[in-house]
Specification:
There is one protein chain. The protein is an alpha/beta fold. 15% of the residues lie in helices and 35% in strands. The chain has three helices and 14 strands. The chain has helices at residues 36-39, 74-85, 101-116; strands at 4-7, 25-29, 45-48, 63-65, 89-93, 120-124, 128-133, 137-142, 148-153, 157-164, 170-176, 185-186, 193-198, 203-208. The chain has a ten-stranded mixed β-sheet, with helices on one face. A four-stranded antiparallel β-sheet has the order 8-13-10-11, with no helix packed on it. Helix 1 links the parallel strand 2 and strand 3. The chain is globular. The model has no long low-confidence stretch (mean pLDDT 92).
Length: 211
């Protein structure tokens, strides 16, 4: 099945169009439909309560109008729609930064929820890529354009964390939400890949381009 791309409302630049695939299924969230133009794509579905942008004109079956009073954010609703449609991979654009930091935090939570439902999730902006390492999983991160490598416990505490190929390696370590031990690591000299695993507690991994 093709990948689903969720496009939220934080402004994106045309350079992120390089991350898109021709067969991506695109869900735009509320004002996120405005991000489709600079990316050169048309959304398959638009969802939202349209409190930050007017409801656009599309075919009726292309738009899902949500109530203003609800538990789900527009992006969370889109994520649940992804699961219902059976996608197993999601790229989230327009979900980081912006003027409301709580939306970034909410989108990180939405990404974790997708991972827990078996949907591999990546959040991307112009400088950073965010992914998840789930309990019992080992992930490899080949060296690309990113320089900084950070890992944080998404569920308050992660135990049995091992990290190899980085400047600061970890062996059976514990990461807690109250102490950012995993921030601002980088590839060790001569290393072309960082490998990270966790025995218990999910991790969020942030790769960032150097200043």
């Amino acid at each position: 099945m093709s990948r689903c791309v969720i496009i939220s409302a934080c402004p994106v630049s045309p350079e992120l169009a390089e991350a898109l695939r021709p067969d991506d299924f695109i869900i735009a969230c509320d004002a996120g439909y405005r991000n489709c133009a600079p990316l050169g794509r048309r959304p398959n579905i638009i969802v939202g309560d349209f409190d930050t942008a007017p409801c656009p004109e599309q075919q009726d079956d292309d738009i899902i109008v949500l109530p203003h009073v609800k538990d789900d954010t527009d992006t969370e609703y889109a994520a649940k729609l992804v699961s219902e449609k059976g996608f197993n991979e999601v790229l989230l654009l327009g979900g980081l930064g912006g003027r409301r930091v709580e939306h970034t935090l909410a989108n990180l939570c939405t990404g974790l929820g997708l991972e827990q439902r078996g949907v591999r999730t990546t959040l991307l902006d112009e400088r950073s890529r965010i992914t998840y390492v789930m309990p019992g999983e080992t992930r490899r991160y080949p060296k690309e354009k990113y320089f900084f490598f950070s890992a944080f416990p998404m569920e308050g505490r992660a135990q049995g964390v091992c990290e190899r190929g980085s400047y600061y390696e970890l062996t059976d370590a514990e990461l807690t939400a109250s102490y950012p031990l995993g921030v601002s690591n980088e590839y060790a000299a001569g290393s072309d890949c960082i490998t990270i695993s966790t025995r218990s507690g999910a991790l969020v991994v942030v790769e960032t381009i150097a200043d």
